[in-house]
Amino acid sequence: MVQLSVNLNKVALIRNSRGHDYPNLLKVAQDCVSFGADGITVHPRPDERHTRYSDIQVLKDNLDVELNVEGYPSESFLNMIEETRPAQCTLVPDAPDAITSNAGWDTIKHEAYLKDIISRISSWGVRTSIFIETHHALIEKAKEIGTDRIELYTEEYARQFAAGNKQAVEPYASSAALAHSLGLGVNAGHDLNLDNLAWLAESLPSLDEVSIGHALVTDALYLGLRETIRRYQTCLGKTESNFLPKGG
Questions:
Q1: What is the pLDDT of residue 164?
Q2: What is the CATH number for 115?
Q3: Dihedrals φ, ψ of 242, to 5°?
Q4: 54-81, pLDDT tens digit by residue?
Q5: Candidates 50, 151, 190, 209; catalytic one
Q6: Is 248 part of a structural domain of the chain?
Q7: Total structural domains in the chain?
């Protein structure tokens, strides 16, 4: 079954806006897990405007689910990954001042650079994933570089789906099938929501994980966190017996 990893950057942004520890990021993460999230994702950026590097160890030490840490592989970021050793590290080609992720890696242009970084991260026992677009040559090169997984950048799918074009999923399905045939795991993320998630999951049978933050946190303002996670898991074809922890 597809794993739902909840991205908590927007929760951290709310916390930071008042200069206090409320809402507490760990408490929200633990609540997400108790409500049925399969994992937690965070994406610390250099200015620490939402998730901070100091959050990572706290989350790693106190969660019983997979922690996925996204980011640009600067030396400070890599040092943090080596120290904390989350379950998964997703490499994203963000500029330091990026508002949000807006492109995948050119794995051909950056082959040597990424190969070295992935080798380092893998030596720490951390699963690697590369944020990538749907060009087959880039996915084939990702395999050569040595990553464990790719994360398909789904903004274009979400944009076209919202305009009524359900066929926009086809390049993603083709890319996921290729990656799966190469032995790569397949994740997906960016602008996924309650409207477009079910069709993506249905169309990508080899999908391992989705990472969703902005839309999920926004939906929680109206629906509450528990109900929101239930609805996202329903989009992934699960019933509560599939995702709620025992006693949850």
A1: 98
A2: 3.20.20.70
A3: -80, -30
A4: 999 999 999 999 999 999 999 999 999 9
A5: 190
A6: no
A7: 1
